[in-house]
């Protein structure tokens, strides 16, 4: 059996289903960690990897990789994805007026947030995407996710799994050093990833259990020029042809500074939608991060001359959720 092409020029742009299926079959991890597995590639993060990651903390500097969670975010309502709505339930005004009903002058403030779980910096869980009606590990999608939530691979199972060695691959700076930003529609290839690693040096080496963060620079452009079509429009991102690279490197997770992780438009001349998601999540078992802010991290890595760090990016233990907001932090 011929291995799937690892460059976009090798794709049959008229047949996304065949190209997706070839990679799903070639790189499928079903059964690799047993029939009851709920973590997928997060299983690659073991105690030794966490010890390695912890040893990378030398000066204690912390860099947050989150976008804000507020009504000024990029979401435009596609499939009911809206920006967070923050509402105060109790305020300082209430306390001043003494109408909260508390004794001896104490007052307080309370608030509530209503939002889709994937409207800002987040993880895609294993129940988020299906392939021909099948979820991660070969389970029937309808048996996994119902109106009661993800009954099998809910994001709560990963609550303690989001700690590992993080590696930044600054593809924006590597490929477009003049601007540090990849153009919309740029398909990042496996060769691009390897070349970036080589250029950045030994601290960029990627292997089993690492969490890779890929900076395209699109968010920096959106912060400067306005959101535009950042949420769902054309974007740089990983090519479908990187599925083999993802599989053989045995990384635990990958996150990007874009809305959708993979290149948009999606490399085909006929209708296609997020084909790399279809391979990576239900077949490889990959946890995917989106809408991360990697600009400050890129500057920190460049200044230090090292691109590895302790990454703490645990999801909220929202029972049955297929994704989770996070505040990932890189610690140097």
From TrEMBL:
Entries under Pfam families matching the protein: Cyclase
Superkingdom of this protein's organism: Bacteria
Biological process (GO), any one: L-tryptophan catabolic process to kynurenine
GO molecular function, one term: arylformamidase activity
InterPro entries on file: KFase/CYL, KFase_sf
Coiled-coil region list: none
PANTHER family with a match to the protein in the record: CYCLASE, PTHR34861
Protein name: Cyclase
Organism: Subtercola boreus
């Amino acid at each position: 059996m011929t291995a799937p092409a690892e460059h976009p020029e090798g794709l049959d742009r008229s047949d996304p289903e065949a190209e997706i299926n070839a990679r799903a079959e070639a790189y499928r991890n079903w059964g690799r960690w047993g029939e009851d597995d709920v973590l997928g590639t997060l299983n690659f993060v073991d105690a030794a990897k966490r010890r390695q990651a912890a040893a990378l903390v030398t000066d204690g500097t912390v860099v947050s990789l989150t976008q804000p969670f507020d009504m000024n975010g990029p979401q435009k309502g596609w499939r009911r994805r809206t920006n967070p709505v923050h509402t105060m339930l109790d305020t300082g005004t209430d306390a001043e007026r003494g109408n909260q009903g508390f004794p001896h002058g104490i007052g307080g403030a309370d608030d509530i947030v209503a939002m889709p779980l994937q409207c800002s910096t987040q993880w895609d869980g294993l129940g988020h995407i299906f392939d021909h009606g099948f979820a991660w590990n070969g389970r029937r999608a309808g048996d996994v996710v119902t109106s009661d939530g993800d009954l099998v691979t809910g994001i709560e199972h990963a609550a303690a799994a989001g700690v590992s060695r993080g590696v930044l691959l600054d593809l924006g700076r590597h490929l477009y050093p003049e601007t540090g930003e990849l153009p919309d529609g740029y398909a990042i290839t496996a060769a691009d990833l390897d070349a970036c690693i080589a250029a950045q040096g030994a601290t960029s080496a990627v292997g089993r259990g690492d969490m890779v963060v890929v900076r395209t620079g699109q968010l920096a452009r959106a912060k400067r020029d306005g959101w535009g079509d950042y949420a769902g429009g054309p974007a740089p991102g990983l090519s479908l042809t990187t599925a083999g690279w993802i599989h053989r490197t045995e990384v635990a997770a990958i996150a990007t500074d874009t809305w959708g992780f993979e290149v948009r438009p999606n490399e085909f001349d006929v209708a296609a939608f997020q084909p790399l998601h279809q391979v990576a999540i239900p077949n490889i078992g990959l946890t995917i991060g989106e809408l991360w802010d990697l600009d400050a991290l890129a500057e920190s890595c460049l200044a230090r001359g090292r691109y590895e760090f302790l990454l703490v990016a645990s999801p909220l233990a929202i029972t049955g959720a297929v994704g989770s907001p996070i505040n990932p932090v890189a610690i140097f």
